[in-house]
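Renewal narrative, Specific Aim 1. Our central claim is that a sequence can be written position by position from structural information alone. The example that follows is taken directly from our test logs and has not been curated for this report. It begins with the structure tokens describing the chain, in the order in which they were read.
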């Protein structure tokens, strides 16, 4: 029973770290990255569709994304969706592809992005601590209901704390790496 609780707790913590990786993928750095388009949905015949499911996205150089839709009739819709998003890039539509030029980031914009990354990292830490709290309460409940010894509870709580420390350290490492990437000129 305790082993199941430990596995479930670790899974929740791992999901928090994976969510952080996904959130960081959408943060624009100085380089063009196709993941910044993942959040943008295009109205495709009444269905909100991600751009990468309706077009090929290429990066010909470090500061340019090229979106080539398979159905040329959605060029305008893709362009409109990008304009409506908070991407901060103006698309260039030439009738067959859309080019997204990514200008170099200013110092202020870099600081804003680092602040946004800090918020994402803090959300991941909170999720990890919530998983710890849930795990500890499940252990306590299990000890009470199954008449397990209290030293079993203390041992399980110590293991859960080790997991918490491990995943919080992983969040901190991922944040430091992303911060360096954003601040790199």
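The sequence written for that structure reads:
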């Amino acid at each position: 029973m305790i082993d199941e609780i430990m596995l479930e707790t670790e899974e929740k913590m791992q999901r928090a770290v994976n969510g952080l990786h996904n959130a960081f993928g959408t943060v624009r750095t100085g380089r063009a990255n196709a993941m910044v388009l993942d959040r943008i949905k295009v109205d495709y015949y009444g269905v909100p569709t991600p751009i990468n499911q309706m077009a090929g996205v290429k990066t010909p150089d470090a500061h340019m994304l090229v979106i080539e839709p398979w159905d040329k009739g959605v060029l305008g819709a893709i362009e409109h969706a990008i304009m409506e998003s908070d991407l901060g890039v103006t698309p260039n539509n030439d009738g067959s592809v859309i080019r997204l030029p990514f200008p170099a980031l200013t110092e202020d914009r870099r600081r804003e992005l680092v602040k946004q990354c800090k918020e994402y990292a803090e959300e991941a830490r909170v999720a990890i601590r919530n998983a710890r709290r849930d795990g500890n309460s499940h252990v306590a409940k299990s000890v009470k209901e199954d008449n397990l010894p209290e030293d079993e509870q203390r041992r399980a709580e110590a293991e859960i704390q080790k997991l918490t420390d491990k995943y919080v350290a992983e969040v901190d490492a991922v944040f430091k790496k992303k911060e360096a990437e954003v601040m790199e000129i």
